[in-house]
Amino acid sequence: MSLNKCMIIGNLGRDPEMRYTPNGQAVTQFTVAVNRNFKGQNGEWQEETEWFRVVAWGPLAERTAEYLRKGRKVYVEGRLQTRQWEDRAGQKRYTTELVAQTVTALDSRPREEAEGSEAASRPARRESAPSGEPADTYTDLDDLPF
Known about the structure:
Blueprint: E1 6-12, E2 17-20, E3 26-39, E4 45-57, H1 58-67, E5 73-86, E6 92-105, H2 111-115, E7 125-126, E8 137-139
Parallel strand pairs: 4-6, 6-8
Antiparallel strand pairs: 1-3, 1-5, 2-3, 3-4, 5-6, 7-8
């Protein structure tokens, strides 16, 4: 039995960037900063930030690119994946990223975004993945029933 699951809560470090693959599938990349507070050896509180590269595919990619902006607090759940490629000089390069299955905004949208958008009154969506994989989700606090 194996398990590859990652869950993080943090703030977007930059606006999501969406592209389309040659076959037309949406892919969005963004970074999330996760802070950790701890007492150092001197007894004083210290803060440490870990940065995660996140990639979302398909409908989830489109929704994250539309609704999320730099600074928003998000919960991301997915799996870790390491990719390898060669740069122009022939050097092997690696990157590890969180492939998102769920992205949930944990703060409400800034007032100017929510007021002028029809999406502010739209309920949260949950879509089933065609391959029987877990559904990609996006919810916003404006859409939650509490």
